[in-house]
Structure formats: C-alpha cells, structure tokens
Amino acid sequence: MSAVMQEMQTDIGLVSTVVARSSLSFIDGEKGVLEYVGYDIDDLARNSTFEETTFLLWHQRLPSHSELADFTARVQSNYDLSDAMWDMIVSLPRDANPMHALRTLTSALALEDPNADDPSEEANERKSLAMLAKMPALIAGFDRHRKGLDLVRPDTSSSIAESFLYMLTGEKPTQRMARAMDICLILHADHGFNASTFASLVTISTLSDMYSAVTTAIGTLKGPLHGGANQGVMIMLQEIDGIENAESFIMDKLTRKDKVMGFGHRVYKSVDPRATYLKTFAEGIAQDTGNIDLFNISKRIEEIMDREVGAKGIYPNVDFYSATTYFSLGLDLDLFTPLFAMSRVSGWTAHCLEYLEDNRLIRPRCDYVGPHAKEYVDISQR
Ligand code: ACO
Fold first, then answer.
1. 262 within a domain of the structure (yes/no)
2. Domain check: are 177 and 251 in the same one?
3. Looking at ligand 1, which residue's alpha carbon is closest to its atom 19?
4. Ligand 1 environment, Cβ below 6 A
5. Is residue 27's pLDDT more than 70?
6. Residue 90 and which of 73, 265, 365, 373 are 20 to 30 A apart at CA?
7. From ligand 1's centre to the CA of 315, what distance in Å?
C-alpha cells in the first residue's frame, strides 16, 4: 500500500464518510428528526404542498404567494408529454418492470431537449422542472398502456398529486386521496445523501447533465435495500395473510437472519419521523378503503420487531407504512417505487443544483487487496 493510501481510512459502504456540505435536509438519526431547510417534516406534511416543498428545496426558502402561483403554473404547463413521448410509452413491452420503463423514459426526455447539455443554472432548473412535471405522466401512461387502457392526458389545472391519480385511474380523486398522495410526495422528497441522491451527485459532479443525473438516481433507487423496500413490505403483508400468522412469519425471518422489509435505516437508530406521521395517516386511509386488516398486520409486525430487535435500533422506516398507504390508494405494488422516484426527483435535482454551485469531481479510492508482481503467462501455456 502506498504512503498516501496508508493515511486513508477504508470505509466500506461509506458509513462514516462525509463527502460534501448541504443546506437541504437535516437528519438527527438518534432523536428521529428530519428537517428540510430547517422546517420540520411534520410541519411541512401538515401544512405544505409538494409543489411548495419542491420550491423550498430548490431555492432554500419558502415562496411568497405570487412566487408559488407562478411556480405551480410553470410546473402545470410542463405536465404534458410530446406526441413522440406518448408514442414511446406505448412502444414499451407491457410486461416491463415500471422502474425500467421510468428510467428509460426519463432518459429519453433528454433526446427532445435541444438544450439538454446547457450547463447554466437557469437551464438546469428548467430541466429539473421538466422532469418533475412530466414524471407523473410517464408513470401513469406506462401503467395504462400495460393494462391495455387508453392513455389519459394530465389535468393541467390540478396539483401534481391530483393530476397523477387522475391519469392513473381516469377519474378525479377525492380531496382526501389527493391530499394523502400529496403528503406521501412531501415525506419522500428529500433525505440527505441517501444512495440514489449520492449516485446523482456522482454523475453531475462529472459535469454530465441533469437528465443523466436523474436517470442514474432512478436506477439506484430501484434496489430492494433502498426504494424497492416499500414493494417488499407489501409482498410480505400479503404473504403473511392474516394477523395470526405474523408472529411465526417474522420469527422465522429473524431466525434465518433475513431482513424484514421496511425496518432499519443507515441513519435512524430511533423511529424514522416520516414513519410516525405515515402510521397515523395509513390507519385513516386503510379504514376508509376497507384495508384495516392490512394495517393491523403492520402494527402487529411493528410490535414483534420492537420486542425482538428494538434494542438494536431497528425501527420502521418510511417504507413500512407508505406501503399500506399506497395500497389503500389503489396503486399496484410495482408502482410504489416509481412513485417514490416521482417525489424524490425534487430532492435529487435540488442536491445537484446545490452541488454544482461549488462542484468537485467525486472520485473515491479503493483499497486494493489483490496480488502484485505476477508474471504474464502466454495463453497457450494456461
Ligand atoms: N430486519 C432484520 N434485521 C435487520 C434489519 C431488518 N430490516 N435491518 C438491519 N438489521 C440487523 C442486521 O441483520 C444487522 O444485525 P447483526 O449486527 O446482528 O448482523 C444489524 O441490524 C445492522 O444491519 P446492516 O444491514 O448492517 O445495517 P445497514 O445500515 O447497512 O443497513 C438497511 C440499513 C439497508 C436499510 C437495512 O436496515 C435493511 O436492509 N433494511 C431492510 C430494507 C429496507 O427497509 N430498506 C429501506 C431503507 S429506507 C429507504 O431507503 C427509503
């Protein structure tokens, strides 16, 4: 090992490495606190909207009345897709994983943007706004296409949450459903340097472009240890099939040292504050939609996990109760992670915009543990 490398600490999984400064989200994993630009997540979930929260993340302050109206109007005027994009949606294989579809379609947005590589701040914000506004149509459009349904164009007079549910179902959602969706979008909008945000920063730090950064992030979010966990939670709840089976199911998993989806977090060693808020919300919406049994199984799992592994700091994370919420809203299981992306795009782009203000290429080292000084053997001798 070289002298330079000897001075460096190997930190597998970047557990204790701080790679940059950020003013966007503050997380206190011990106390269970999450703030966006200083505002408590609970306060934002109760009082804000996803559009306002995105403005907050992008501009690091709350908008005035007219600024919010202007921002919302700009987002709404970007909801619709070009004919070429709608055609691309219906050209995709119906049995494709919606995350593969979303990643491909988001990447394709760059193809029709003549200024996709313009690195100016103004252009980067315009591209961020385009992705934020169009992702709901990409997700809902693909879902209708795979079900053989006619595509529904966005409702440019309503919020992102409302227009998304409208495109998905073809019907105007109730105010309660639209608000539930809006709150989920707020709660998932940002979360420090999680894996997908970090991946987007690695890409933007090469001075690539915003579309590439977000495409990278979508691919990273897809994994079951990150954004894919909410789908895993729902699969688990369905497998358990009755509250009486919860104890044996979970004990079996823990004995086999399998991870229970929706529990544990790299940062939170107390309760994830997003889960606390969602728990109450999930109960209400599950009650309204006849899914209270599902909610009760979740509560039972939480009790068992608390008894068995609570002392190790393993508690429900945001994915645990968002699964019940999304299911109660009528979403297919494999749309849970695309929905996460639809929200997190605001955080990914906010972090990229912030990082570009003082960009430095992200390029870590690895600790080489392989052999040295081996002699090349000709292929005829091997
Ligand atoms: N179920 C059971 N045991 C768990 C769980 C879990 N969900 N999570 C952690 N543990 C245990 C591990 O087995 C390990 O135990 P040990 O010390 O006896 O070996 C210990 O807790 C530490 O676990 P690690 O996996 O090393 O912790 P890490 O910080 O690397 O992982 C992670 C965090 C990936 C989130 C992990 O908790 C996990 O896999 N959870 C399930 C998947 C999930 O819900 N992901 C969503 C995260 S939130 C998000 O991305 C939005």
1. yes
2. no
3. 257
4. 225-227, 229, 257, 259-266, 309, 312, 314, 317-319
5. yes
6. 73
7. 10
Kindly report the protein residue whose alpha carbon is nearest to atom 27 of ligand 1.
Answer: 266
Question: Could you tell me which residues are beta bridge partners of residue 193?
Answer: 191
Tell me the whole-structure pTM to 2 decimals. Answer: 0.91
Alpha carbon nearest to ligand 1 atom 26, residue: 266
Give me the helix-helix angle, 50-59 and 160-169, nearest 10°: 130
Place of tokens 């600490």: 9
Q: Are residues 81 and 179 in the same domain?
A: yes
Which residues participate in catalysis according to the annotation?
Answer: 226, 265, 319
Q: What is the mean pLDDT of residues 76-84?
A: 98
| Å from CA of 261 to ligand 1 middle | 9
Q: Specify the residue for token string 């313009």.
A: 118
Whether pLDDT at 229 is above 90: no
Answer yes or no: is 93 within a domain.
Answer: yes
HSE (side-chain half, CA atoms, 13 Å) at 298: 33
CA-nearest residue, atom 39 of ligand 1: 225
pLDDT tens, residue by residue, 45-62: 999 999 999 999 999 999
Pick from 314, 321, 348 the residue to mutate for probing ligand 1's pocket: most ligand atoms within 8 Å of its CB: 314
Among 9-18, 74-83, 266-275, the range with the most confident prediction by mean pLDDT is: 74-83
- The answer for residues whose C-beta is within 8 angstroms of residue 21's C-beta and 6 or more apart is none
Q: How far away, in angstroms, is 222 Cα from ligand 1 center?
A: 17
Place of tokens 């690895």: 366
Percent pLDDT > 70 in the chain is: 99
The reply to whether 7 falls in a domain is no
C-alpha 133 – ligand 1 centre gap (Å) = 33
For residues 193 and 22, is the Cβ–Cβ distance under 8 A? yes
* 298, part of any domain: yes
Q: Are residues 70 and 206 in the same domain?
A: yes
Distance 114 CA to ligand 1 centre (A): 43
Ligand 1: residue whose CA is nearest its atom 2: 259
Kindly report, residue by residue over 65-77, the tens digit of the pLDDT: 999 999 999 999 9
pLDDT band with cut points at 50, 70 and 90 for residue 230: confident
Question: Residue 325: CB partners within 8 Å, gap ≥ 6?
Answer: 180, 184, 278, 281, 282, 285, 286
